[in-house]
Amino acid sequence: MKRFGVAFLALAFTFSAYAAKNSTTVTLTEPLHVGSATLPAGPVKVTWTGTGSDAQLTLAPRGQAPITVPGQIVVQKNGEPSISTNSVKGVQYLQQIDLDNLTLVVRNAPGPAATSGN
User: Is residue 7 part of a domain?
Assistant: First the structure.
């Protein structure tokens, strides 16, 4: 596993939207892949529905069609918001997004995760 610094991915979370609507916004400083789709650098609105391993994650980059993937919601206290990724043949794949009180896991993401943040 490799730890990426804050310089690799900057996270901007909108906690009021998160609490009210099961959504938040993250800002990526570099592109990330989710399945065969690519999330560009910049703000990405993340919403989720369902519970536990029966969840759906929708990632909506500004100016692009939303990407919906199967996910898992894990209720847990996280020390600091972060994004976990995995590099496969030089391509960065989104693994999970850690929020204050839950983790959004991308199901079927390739390989083990590396975490960005402090």
Answer: no
Q: Is residue 8 part of a domain?
A: no
Tokens of 90: 């030089």
**Residue 113 confidence (pLDDT):** 63
pLDDT for 17: 36
Query: What is the Cα Rg of the chain in Å?
Result: 13
| In-domain check, residue 2 | no
- Rounded to whole angstroms, the Cα distance separating 66 from 17 reads 18
- Per the DSSP assignment, residues forming a β-bridge with 105 are 72, 96
Average pLDDT along the chain, 118 residues, taken 10 residues at a time: 38 39 88 93 95 94 94 92 91 93 90 60
pTM of the model: 0.76
Owning domain of residue 89: 15-115
Total of domains in the chain: 1
Is residue 91 in a domain? Answer: yes
Cα–Cα distance measured from residue 17 to residue 23, given in angstroms and rounded to the nearest whole number: 6
